[in-house]
Design brief:
Elements lengths: L3 H34 L3 H29 L1 H18 L6 H15 L2 H12 L2 H12 L1 H20 L1 H10 L1 H11 L11 H7 L15 H4 L3 H32 L8 H26 L4 H16 L11 H29 L2 H35 L3 H26 L6 E4 L2 E4 L2
Helix pairs in contact: 1-3, 1-5, 1-6, 1-7, 1-8, 1-9, 1-12, 2-3, 2-4, 2-5, 2-16, 3-4, 3-5, 3-8, 3-9, 5-6, 5-16, 6-13, 6-15, 7-8, 7-13, 12-15, 12-16, 12-17, 13-14, 13-15, 14-15, 14-17, 16-17
Length: 431
């Protein structure tokens, strides 16, 4: 039997790595850009919000579009758009133009996860989906690991404009490999009949695949709201880790962001391990005969509990104690995220997966849009008082409690993880 499905995951992994590399660059260049453009924390939060607002819109638009035109064309379109936007940062001349280019970047990057989750649903049986999702989702961390090594070096040698330009244009190379190497399993010439049979071995009994579903149809279901609330409550935490951790280490521990940052590398490497390991754990539970409901929810509860200790950073006495707590938190977040995304393909038919991911992703991005208001205001207040670290301590307490609340919401709205089927053009829940 061939194993071509894992090559497809490799392509998803690389795309996700590029996606996060492009968005991470600005956080590493923040101290330099603050000097050049006289940014306050509030100015920076507005730029983050421009990205988040466009990203939220992109999620839901690309989610719907990809369900209609397919992952091959939709993914390529999204990557081309965000690649152009990332490179355009190099010609920004003001805070306003940074906001415009960040918004354009968000419009493209929102297509990554709807396309990737739909691809996993098409290429993997249920038992392997969380692992496959965890593998490609690890690209979010690899991008964040590569950036602290790559960007400071480019900044020191060539300047901030070239840092945006070089990291931005990598996406075009990926598009070539994607266009040549991707097709749905039923049409792929490199796929053996044995692997195709394995991929479709637990095909969902979802009824008529020609049935078209509207967003209002999808919003009728409690399962949709379980995913939406899970993303709304926890995605803002990851955005905070992504956009403010470099600044946190710089302000609280005098970390020089013009040099490769070992603490940041440790933190985001831990997130990579959490993503893959988190995807494996629920699959392991399934292989032991556990139900999907028990497997996914047990794993996600464990991950939610692992994030709570981040509130103890206020008692840490040195940078490496903080690195340990943050590493555990980001690893648990990525493990949580891999399973949360997999819930969509567990509950919904394949022709709705991208749309559901789009709705949830939009909710998460709206949360990520609003949370920077709190972050910027809180940090500016304590920065003016000469104790910005206290502001970060309060933010870590908020982050530590978000996942338990999200888990409770998921359990309330989806007491049992079970599939939805289509009958006579009407969505009904299987019993």
């Amino acid at each position: 039997m061939t194993n071509y499905r894992w090559r497809i995951v490799g392509l998803l992994f690389v795309a996700t790595t590029i996606n996060y590399l492009d968005r991470q660059v600005i956080s590493l260049l923040k101290p330099t850009l603050e000097t050049v453009f006289n940014w306050t924390e509030t100015d920076y939060s507005h730029i983050v919000m421009a990205f988040q607002g466009a990203y939220a819109l992109s999620y839901v638009v690309f989610g719907r579009l990809i369900d209609k035109i397919g992952a091959k064309v939709g993914y390529a379109l999204a990557v081309c758009l965000w690649t152009i936007a990332a490179a355009l940062h190099a010609v920004a001349t003001s805070t306003f133009s940074f906001g415009v280019y960040r918004a354009l970047l968000g419009l493209g990057e929102g297509g990554n996860f709807p396309a990737a989750i739909k691809t996993v649903a098409e290429w993997f049986p249920r038992q392997e989906r969380a692992l496959a999702t965890g593998i490609f989702n690890a690209g979010t961390n690899i991008g964040a690991v590569v950036a602290p090594v790559m960007v400071p070096w480019i900044l020191g040698v060539y300047g901030w404009q070239v840092a945006f330009l070089i990291t931005g244009l990598i996406g075009f190379i990926w598009v070539i490999f994607w266009w040549v190497g991707y097709e749905i399993p039923q049409r792929h010439k490199r796929l053996s009949s044995q692997e195709l049979a394995y991929i479709t071995s637990d095909a969902d009994n979802t009824g008529d695949e020609s049935v078209q579903m509207k967003w209002l149809d999808l919003l009728r279901f409690r399962q949709t709201w379980a995913f939406i609330l899970g993303k709304l409550l926890t995605d803002p935490v990851w955005w905070f880790f992504l956009f403010w951790l470099p600044s946190y280490f710089a302000s609280s521990f005098n970390l020089d962001l013009k040099k490769p940052s070992l603490p940041l590398i440790f933190v985001y490497t831990a997130a990579t391990i959490g993503s893959v390991g988190g995807g494996y754990l629920s699959g392991y539970f399934l292989s032991r005969g556990w139900t999907i409901n028990r497997s996914r929810k047990t794993a996600m509860l464990l991950y939610a509990l692992c994030i709570v200790p981040i509130a103890l950073t206020r008692y840490a006495t040195n940078i490496w104690e903080v690195v340990g707590l943050l590493s555990l938190a980001v690893a648990a977040h990525q493990a949580w995220s891999a399973n949360l995304f997999t819930l969509v393909s567990d509950m919904f038919p394949k022709q709705a997966v991208s749309s559901i991911v789009g709705l949830g992703g939009m909710a998460g991005s709206v949360g990520g849009l609003l949370f920077p208001i709190v972050v910027g205001s809180l940090l500016d207040t304590y920065k003016a008082a000469g104790s910005i670290t206290i502001g970060y301590n309060y933010l870590f307490i908020i982050c530590g409690s978000a996942y338990l609340l999200a888990w409770l919401c998921i359990h309330l709205f989806a007491p049992k993880i079970q599939p939805i089927v289509l009958k006579n053009t009407v969505l009904e829940i299987t019993t």
